[in-house]
Amino acid sequence: MKIHPHDKVLEQLILSLPEREKDVVFHLARCAYCRARLYYLPRPQEAPASEKGAGRYAAALERTRGRVESWALAVEQERDEAPDLFVELMGRPAGRREEILGTDPRFHSWGLFELLIERSRETTTRDAAWAEDLGLLALGLSERLDASRYGAELIEDLRARAWACVGNACRSRSDFDGAEEAFGKSFHHLERGTGDALERGLLLDLLGSLRRDQREFEAAVDLLRKAVSIFLKIGDRHRAGRSLVNMSIVHSHSGQTEESIPVLYQALDLIDAEQEPRLLLCARHNLTTYLADSGRFLEARDLYRETRPLYREFGEPWVQNRRHWVRAKIAGGLGNAGRAESLLLAAREGFLAEGIPFDTALVSLEIAALYAGQGRTADLKRLAEEIVPVFASRHIHREALAALAFLKQAMEAETASLDLVLTVAAYLRRAENDPALKFEASR
Amino acid sequence: MDRPRPDIGETLDRLQPVLEWIFTDYGIPPDQAAAIVEECCRILIAKRPRPQEPAVWLLRNVIERCERSGEEKGFEDPPA
User: Fold this and answer.
1) pTM for this one?
2) What is the residue extent of each domain of chain A?
3) Smallest Cβ distance to B56: which of A33, A157, A239?
């Protein structure tokens, strides 16, 4: 059947099934493994298995099993040893690490190779330069790995991954030329690798982030769609969910917040909470925020309530400040201005303490909008006094600072209307992901 | 962090009947079948983060290699 059956056809089918068979259908809908098995069922009855299948292959597969189990043990042992080797390597002077990797065969291990790549990936958001160094060290190590032991194609797969990590680190510090070059090398190695679709999916996902930061939104969405399709094909629902979260961020950066909402609902169906609870929190939090920003406050409130236990699991300020912020949006939208104000002030306090200027600015503008809406000019003036000195001492780009200074002037002159506050706030939200965006004071 | 890795032997046991039918369908000789399974398993073991559904990953990769092998054969030995 090449045409998707109509809802009514599916409904009739489900209703016609006994309870037990319904369970089987719902299981199939969720289990990629069983769906893959379906292609080989029912098995032909006329040919006894002993003649056509089991008898022919059993012995060969048994021998393979022995070799594969030995290989698994060897790799696990290298993985167990890798953290100590990593600590030892990092204990050496930075300028000598490459040389030590070359001369000491203890370091020539698969476990250390993949650990360097993993650490590079994990470190990107905190310290992109360090992430790049780790990726390059991994690539240096790959030249020393024994291709006859590990397989040349497998090494190529991980080289592709290491270059993608380097590219991602370059993207993170806005070195787009460096990122392009690294991703080009990554594709080159990928073509020489095992052909594992998982690697291609991981690479496309990271390249999608580069296109997003380059503000090539259509290309970013296209790459992420391909990554999602690959992950779903290989039964990796969680990674498909992760790429969808990434895609929703692309929509948000392109100013299409409404588009992000269905994408995140889809992601929530795919994310494995046990595997990565932080990703689930991130998806739920972003969805709650987008719903509130789109005026769907009741839906946002219900989702927030469902997410409360998860917020409690992550007590760090980064999460809790954002939690205050989204609760404030919901409270304000549902008409509880007092609650919204106290939550916004708590969020602002938290962002100031964390030293996150852009979010501090955005929350301050939401407070300003609240004051302007209530005609609280004295409070607006007080807020204005606090705004610019704080931002001037931090790293907010010039255009954004100019927009804030313009608003401050209006607040001090008591001419700041709610419209002006909202215009500056909308500008700042867009400028966060597009530092080249000009502020039009005439608006 | 990855979840505990189920024994690769266990996965192979679970898949063996399906694998045998795949190899039979594609007309792959036993030695080549063993080589394909070994290659795929080595990749699976060496990959971290690991595929979420290792059994699905393994089946898909085995099938792809069988298809590739069929295409190569067809190229060398075209039908009369």
Assistant:
1) 0.75
2) 6-38, 76-174+184-192
3) A33
